[in-house]
Amino acid sequence: MVNIPKTRRTFCKKCGKHQPHKATRYKKGKDSLYAQGKRCYDRKQSGYSGQTKSIFQKKDKTTNKIVLRLECVEPNCRSKRTLAVKRCKHFEL
Predict the structure, then answer these.
(1) Residue 55 lies in a domain
(2) For residue range 8-34, what is the model confidence (pLDDT) as tens digits?
(3) Which residue segment(s) compose the domain that 93 sits in?
(4) What are the Cα distances from residue 9, in Å, to 26, 30, 73, 93?
(5) Are 89 and 48 a contacting pair, CB within 8 Å?
(6) Tell me: the pLDDT tens digits for 58-86?
(7) Is residue 84 part of a domain?
(8) What does DSSP say about strands 2-3 and 7-12: parallel, antiparallel, or unpaired?
(9) Are 54 and 44 within 8 A, CB to CB?
């Protein structure tokens, strides 16, 4: 179990000094339907004949790498950056 504080004082590139930052967990955005690779893949998959590209066979790891999104709490800064944390099974803010 990894407990991480909701706020931390760390360096802000925009302010140029240490400021309190609000920490949240990074979430992946929705994949675009119109990315080049997705368009090629959909074109290849369409029509007769089944799966055209090999499906990934290796199993997943049992843990995820935690990525934090740090946002400066300074009202006229609000710059955001990400910070990777080690792998862990249970994560709490």
Answers:
(1) no
(2) 999 999 999 999 999 999 999 999 999
(3) 1-28+61-93
(4) 19, 31, 10, 15
(5) no
(6) 998 999 999 999 999 999 999 999 999 99
(7) yes
(8) unpaired
(9) no
- CA 10 from chain centre, in angstroms, equals 20
- Positions of E strands within 1-93: 2-3, 7-12, 17-25, 64-72, 80-88, 91-92
Name the DSSP letter for residue 75.
Answer: T
DSSP 8-state symbol, 63: S
Whether the pTM exceeds 0.90: the reply is no
Kindly state whether residue 93 falls inside one of the protein's structural domains: yes
The answer to the question of residue 34 being in a domain is no
Which among 19, 27, 26, 29 has a CA at the least distance from the CA of 78?
Answer: 19
Contacts of 41 (CB under 8 A, 6+ apart): 53
* Residue 78 near residue 71 (C-beta atoms within 8 A): yes
In terms of phi and psi (left: phi > 0; alpha: psi -120 to 50; beta: otherwise), the region of 58 is beta
